[in-house]
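W.,

You were right to be curious about this one. When I first looked at the sequence I had no strong expectations either way, so I just let the prediction run and decided to look at it fresh. Below is the sequence, 683 residues in total, followed by the output.
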Amino acid sequence: MQKLRRLCACVLTAALAGIMLLTSTAFADTPYVTYTINGYGRIRRTQTAYLAHATITKFGEEALAAPSDIFIAKDGLIYVADSGNKRIVIGDAQGELVGTVGEGILQNPRGVFVTDDGKIYVADRDANRIFIFSGEGELTEEYGKPSSPLYGDEVSFLPIKIVVNDAGIMFVVCESNTNGIVEISPTDGGTFLGYFGTNYAATNLTTIIYRAILTDAQRAKMVSNIPATPTNLTIDGKGLIYTVTRGNENDTLKRLNIAGTNMIHNTDGTYADTPTAVAAGNHDNVYVADQQGYIFEYNNEGEMLFVFGGPDDGSQRVGLSTMVSGIAIDTADRIYVLDSDKAQIQIYQPTEFTDLMHEALYLYSKGRYTEAKEPLTQVLKMNSMFDYANKAMGRCCFQEDNYQEALRYARLAKDYSGYSDAYWEIRNVWLKNNIMLLILILVLLFVVIKILKAVDKKKQIFKAPRAFFKKLKQNSFISDLCYAGYYMRKPNDAAYGIAAEGRANWLVSTFLLVVFILEFIINKYTCGFLLKGVMDGRYEILSDIGAIVAVMAAVTACSYLVCTINEGEGTVKKIYTFFCYSLMPYIVLTPINYLLSHVLTNNEVFLNAMLTILIYGWIAVIAFIGLKEVNNFSVGQTVKVILLTAFAALILALLIFIIYVLWAQVFEFVYALIGEGVYRLGY
């Protein structure tokens, strides 16, 4: 029995040691964190998408020197533009040397591309030429600067990146050429077809104003506003060109069709800051490498799936880079990242999670929605909060006419467009099934109201309720509450009542402010999904209440002080009253807006926006009239008081902030002093 116990103890110890060893190995293989973007547009940590698989430091005995580009051919061979050694190095994924090309011909090869038939295209910056080699390494053709005047006589030809489509047309990125990608046909010794996918020059309001008011001489001294030159490019199996451009903000990544039009319109701001390379994937996806070592993966609409990797801090850990200059993808979805500073290639292997995601992407892009649901289900089992998988699942359910499930997944993924489409279909089905019943109910209501009015006219059946409500209105609180509604409709007359007839009321005004706060909170946190502006589960109710109360108190106090200085007749009570009464449009119309938010789709959401504009516009108008009438100001005086009030409120906010910072420092000092005392007393 003791032997059995010892044996079990040994097995358990070995198992624990094995688990610890596996854990440490996995950590060593992934010295970085993988992130994705959720439906709210925020970066969130997720499962490891790619593992650092291997590193190629040289091919055979041939080391690289300042390599600048990498390409993987259909047969799996790796082509590297070995700029420092003025050649193209060919090897395999195991680091074995296959051969070299261009030695003695190339001067500074910066870009390499290999066609399906084995032709090797090299963009040589210093030679100002494009060289084409056969699969055996023989130079077959070369192209220099296009002779066409459309290219530009003063524009230099410094090719640094190149891709070629199935027709043999070359798309070349030239250094410092801001006109766009150079498009060259191989016919007639190289025919210039024009510039392709030109970037737009960035403009802003300040620049426009400056250029409008400055003289010609002053404008000439300004920094020229010219479009950025693409940094790199690639081509996918459909012949679509992808480009990356530094400093192009939401146009950092472009997917260009045959007309040069960008087909990506994503504004989530998840693009690399310093993109240096781009590669098309095997599943309608695309990879962008940042110069610092971060790798971004996007779908064909430019939505980020993963970002991983990072800069090497000197630890020389596998998977981290120093200066990325190229990226390529093989048929097994392995990522090859070329580091020009380390002169090596990092290889990343996709995990099971990523393989399932890629399978779903491929099936979905081919319209095989039912089949795509299986890998998506597996992905969601691994991570139920992976929003892109929820979004894709919702779109698959929509294509199968399963609108309820599509609505649920779109809600989980915060996919507003998908939610709107699914809800539109659900609402249409409901209306088709219930439209006649709705019409019948409306007709019956109309008939019943007409009958009751006729009977009441003859029999006075509503005499008692009318008497009750008439008596109820005699209550001072109810009377002033109704007066707030009168102020909403006729602010001129009602404001005079507040100023001269004693209709100012602390209790009613505060009651209206409380109702306003309740409606604001309910509308903010429980309105329809398409109009909800806060994250699920994120409640800041106390902050909302505090902010509203603070703003009302500050506006009332500042208005009173400014009005008093300008000989206004309003008291604190009167000013507070008309400000609170001015909230009536929000109190009355927000419930309608709230109901609309639950039944509208994206096509009708403008109705909610229009009603919101009406509410706040109405509040502004009656508040302006109230301020004018209560203080007996002219229009000009009222505008002046409003501006001074805004300035006073700003000064007050700044003063409160300064006091808060000072008190925070005092508390921190006292806390540190007490901590030091306790520490010393402990000895």
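Here's what jumped out at me. Confidence is low (pLDDT under 50) at residues 1-28. And, maybe more interesting for your project: DSSP finds 17 helices and 27 strands in the chain.

Coffee later to discuss?

I.
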